[in-house]
């Protein structure tokens, strides 16, 4: 079965790299050290191995994206490394077997002069990654300049005159036979100096282009660039290790490791940047490198101090035992403590999850008010994650917000919602850039714990405020009702009854001498008493609809539906599994249904309306629907709609008023009920 067309390039590149490294290894095994020294050549298989590593990181990208420019740049660079290594091995072999085999001069020319093109691959990758296209605008011009600068020295060396190379203290082992540029050697040396400077400057300029891309990147592209940033940090760490150890083979291995890490990070960034937690890798790498560097420095100081104090007084065995004794008894605790201090200085206390959450809980417990809790939360987050800026914002009831800020506002921030269940009660603002702002999955879990703790505290504080406001409203409402009843009794019913008593006295006095006047006074008193009874009924109805006591909730709703039904509007009432209800729930259900039906009769222009009561464990659903015109989106809620919501919320329930796409209006109210009405009293 033939391979799909997209996989042919990957297979071809991998096969070619393997063939070149195999040939290089075979030639290096044939050559001896004296042959390489006479030819001034090294192990070509090392360069071939570097090329194979680069190809290995690019093959997965070519397999999936056979036309991706970055993959082809890395593959081409890797193949060129392999070819350069093969030419180095062949040069050593050819120079050791005169007369020289074919292509020996060509191989020497590749190694000595064409190999400088190996420097072009890295800046080219930096200006193309991750999209494979140059940035638009002025950055495109800068990118082209970067590539041109990177090619300056390789192009000059391509056909450099032998006199110029000799002036650079580089002696070719033989005449390569390649054409030379007819320029005097001293002039060409100056050109080579300029070309070397331009080529070296192309790398920092390419890094500048990469930073420019990162500043404008969002989403997936920003995540891809973080993978390359982690690779850069790893290269710095590996380079530091190589400089400290200062061993030839270790330096070579370190460089190969850096190349492999860079290629692998580029491949992951292109194929699937979400495959791993790059923020955790970045933070862990920086912390590990810092801690390791500090500890190694202290280790070297300890060894140097002991060596200076003891000198040659102890042999190697005694020195080793003394070092172990000092390390175990004295240095190990200091080293462990130092590791913790460095970790905290770099990334804060995010590693101590339990301590962070418990300290925050203690702070929030000490601060009872939301305005005092928010600064404590901001400080806790900033301390835990070692951030320079944290802003906490809590939404108020009237649409306003309460906020607390720690630090100065950076250029870019990201928001983290604070949720209590499904309700968003606030949000956190954190810096969007910098190593400390990169949160691993473990850090994100800690942030979730902090946010959850804060949400509970904020929710509790808001509930306390709601409770206090409810108490104040209840007191105010009670006093308003008392004042209204007192006014009605004092100004209305009292004078009426007083007038009745006076008329009855006058009627008694006139009974013998003027019976007609007595009858008129008695009739007038009777009318006054009738009016007073009507006022009493009005007062009682305002406290609780009498129909609920006389008929019950369902019959009272039927009566209300019959009263509002007309020739144009038919109202029906249905109930299902309605449990025993407390007096407060009965009044709320009756008032909500009456208000909704009244709105339907006045404004909806409906032909049919339905009231449905449905009981479920702990809840009574009151649903009123009609087939009318609905409510326009720009209509401001009036007193009736607000009263429906308020009556549901004051019992701890909720209400919604919606207009379905099919037309009409649907009012739903969920009222909490108790199976035992006495519990509600």
TrEMBL record:
Transmembrane stretches, start-end: 43-63, 70-86, 106-129, 141-167, 187-211, 223-243, 249-271, 283-306
SMART domains: HATPase_c (SM00387)
Keywords: Kinase, Membrane, Transferase, Transmembrane, Transmembrane helix, Two-component regulatory system
CDD domains registered for this protein in UniProt: HATPase_UhpB-NarQ-NarX-like (cd16917)
Domain of life where this protein originates: Bacteria
This protein's record includes keyword Secreted: no
UniProt keyword Membrane, yes or no: yes
The Histidine kinase/HSP90-like ATPase domain, residue ranges: 584-675
PANTHER family: NITRATE/NITRITE SENSOR PROTEIN NARX-RELATED
Protein name (Swiss-Prot/TrEMBL): Histidine kinase/HSP90-like ATPase domain-containing protein
Organism: Nocardioides conyzicola
Taxonomic classification: Bacteria, Bacillati, Actinomycetota, Actinomycetes, Propionibacteriales
